């Protein structure tokens, strides 16, 4: 992840800079403006917006969350005055949102605002809606008298990087993350702290025995994982395949100068070029970008720690949403959640000695948060 910050020198001046007219209706601050012939309303989220917001989180921001879990989270946020969410409404529907929280931090007397997510559905992009949402966050900063806004965005989201830079944000650091195992009642079948459970290895073998499609383990994945930068990975892969910058440029339909800029870290390939590079080198896009995301199979929840575990489409492209045991040759292995639950209960370790009903309930809660089952 890349972390961007914007320092606000004079927060009080933002009242005039935020686009359009502002209205107060009850406790809702509204911004209403006509964008490209379309009326866009920016307002605080309401209970009836939660289902549409969950769709944006899943399909636009790429965060797997169920409608029920999202509603529960937003209700908690509504009770915490440090948190805020604004939605963009156009054509009588929710087309975008932004969520943030004011975080106590040194050396900021009033804390700083951390943006947790911003998304606009594809058919409403390039109409100024993202800009309006971001400027609403800056108005929020002015009202709270905080002088900095920070956000994290995926390494491969080059279009988002350009947008934030146009809005005055600068890349200042890298974001590191670790997701510790919790005692949440919805337990992932792939998380087990019991010393006798070699969950990853044993269950990869079990799954492999029960599926027919298999792929060779990727031999081209650079060593070092996320500690390698994208520029280093791209250069290493090119040299490993004994290609000059000119030869690679010709294969992925760019200029030699573009390849040079990738390898110096000046720019990143766009999404379409990343797909071509993925096919050329036979590695996933996540690997090309230095593995900024912990990939999970969106069917069974298995961590996809190696490219050899990732599914492929019939044309050979990686499908980073699924493991190769749940999805292969364009077809899903499990036609229902019950079929997958039956398999997990039969084959996964059970160090706590839970009965089948309890395990089914726990696994079902975990699987329900994955994109495939929503």
Q: How many beta-strand runs?
A: 13
**Alpha carbon gyration radius:** 23 Å
Largest sheet: 9 strands, mixed
CATH level-3 fold name of the largest domain = Aminopeptidase
Number of domains: 3
Order of helices and strands: EHEEEHHEEEHEHEHHHHHHEEEEHH
User: At the fourth CATH level, what is the homologous superfamily of the largest domain?
Assistant: Gcn5-related N-acetyltransferase (GNAT)
Shape: globular
The total count of helices amounts to 13
Task: Note the main attributes of this structure.
374 residues; alpha+beta; Aminopeptidase; 434 Repressor (Amino-terminal Domain); 3 domains; two-stranded antiparallel ribbon; globular
Q: What would a concise description of this structure say?
A:
Helix content is 34%, strand content 22%.
């Amino acid at each position: 992840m890349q972390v961007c910050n914007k320092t606000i020198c004079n927060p009080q001046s933002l009242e005039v800079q935020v686009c359009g007219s502002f209205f107060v209706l009850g406790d809702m601050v509204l911004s209403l403006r006509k964008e490209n012939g379309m009326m866009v309303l920016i307002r605080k989220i309401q209970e009836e917006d939660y289902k549409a917001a969950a769709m944006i989180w899943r399909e636009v921001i790429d965060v797997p969350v169920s409608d029920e879990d999202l509603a529960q989270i937003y209700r908690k946020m509504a009770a915490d005055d440090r948190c805020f969410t604004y939605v963009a409404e156009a054509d009588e529907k929710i087309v975008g949102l932004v969520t943030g929280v004011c975080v106590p931090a040194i050396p900021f007397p009033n804390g700083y605002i951390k943006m947790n997510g911003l998304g606009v559905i594809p058919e409403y992009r390039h109409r100024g809606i993202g800009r309006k949402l971001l400027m609403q966050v800056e108005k929020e900063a002015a009202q709270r008298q905080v002088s900095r806004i920070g956000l994290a965005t995926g390494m491969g989201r080059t279009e988002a990087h350009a947008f934030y830079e146009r809005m005055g944000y600068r890349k200042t650091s890298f974001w590191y993350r670790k997701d510790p195992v919790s005692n949440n009642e919805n337990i992932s079948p792939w998380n087990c702290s019991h010393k006798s459970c070699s969950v990853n290895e044993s269950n990869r073998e079990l799954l492999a025995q029960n599926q027919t499609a298999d792929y060779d383990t990727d031999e081209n994945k650079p060593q070092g994982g996320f500690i390698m930068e994208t520029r280093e990975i791209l250069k290493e892969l090119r040299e490993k395949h004994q290609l000059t910058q000119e030869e690679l440029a010709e294969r992925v339909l760019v200029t030699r100068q573009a390849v040079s800029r990738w390898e110096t870290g000046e720019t990143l390939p766009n999404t379409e070029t990343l797909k071509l590079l993925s096919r050329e080198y036979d590695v996933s896009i996540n690997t090309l970008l230095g593995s900024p995301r912990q990939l999970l199979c969106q069917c069974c929840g298995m961590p996809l720690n190696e490219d050899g575990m990732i599914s492929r489409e019939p044309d050979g492209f990686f499908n980073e949403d699924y493991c190769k045991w749940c999805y292969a040759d364009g077809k899903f292995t499990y036609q229902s959640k019950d079929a997958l639950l039956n398999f997990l209960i039969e084959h996964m370790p059970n160090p706590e000695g839970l009965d089948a009903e309890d395990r089914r309930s726990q696994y079902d809660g975990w699987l329900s948060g994955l994109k495939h089952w929503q």
